[in-house]
Structures are given as C-alpha cells and as structure tokens.
Amino acid sequence: MGWISSKQQERDHNGQRNICSADGHPSTDEDPLVTNLDGFRIHRSHTTDPTSGFYGQQQN
C-alpha cells in the first residue's frame, strides 16, 4: 500500500478509509483506491487519467 500521510491516517480513524480523498466518493471494485505520492488514498482512475491533476502519482 505504501507510505500513508498523517492526514490520511486521521481520515482512516474517522471512518473514511474507503473514501477517496480527492473526490469524496467510495472505493469500488472497478475503481479501487491507491496511495498517491502525497500519502493519500485516491481512486486509481485519478492516477491513470492524463487530464487529472493526479496523473502518474500512484506509489509503487
């Protein structure tokens, strides 16, 4: 899963572990959450869409 930021850890503890921190929508089987370079969980589609500000920012 990679490095998780302290802010994402706070979101996790507040029941938002499966909620995208970029758009506020829940994770789905078709579009799961991944960890971005800033340590937040966001939909994979944000990191694969060239028009997204998160394009290419998925942690390995």
Q: How many separate helices?
A: 2
- Domains (count): 1
Radius of gyration: 11 Å
Helicity level: 10-25%
Termini separation comes to 8 Å
Low-pLDDT residue intervals, each spanning 5 or more residues = none
Largest sheet strand order? 1-2
Relative strand content: 5-15%
Order of helices and strands: HEEH
Q: Quickly give the structural class.
A: alpha+beta
Task: Characterise the protein shown here.
The protein has one domain. It contains 2 helices and 2 strands; from the N terminus they run αββα. The chain has helices spanning 6-13, 44-48; strands at 33-35, 41-43. The protein has a two-stranded antiparallel ribbon. The longest helix has 8 residues, at 6-13.
Short description:
The protein has 60 residues and is α+β, with helices and mostly antiparallel strands. It has helices at 6-13, 44-48; strands at residues 33-35, 41-43.
Brief descriptors of the model:
22% helix, 60 residues, 2 helices, 2 strands, two-stranded antiparallel sheet, alpha+beta
Topology of helices and strands:
Elements: H1 6-13, E1 33-35, E2 41-43, H2 44-48
Antiparallel strand pairs: 1-2
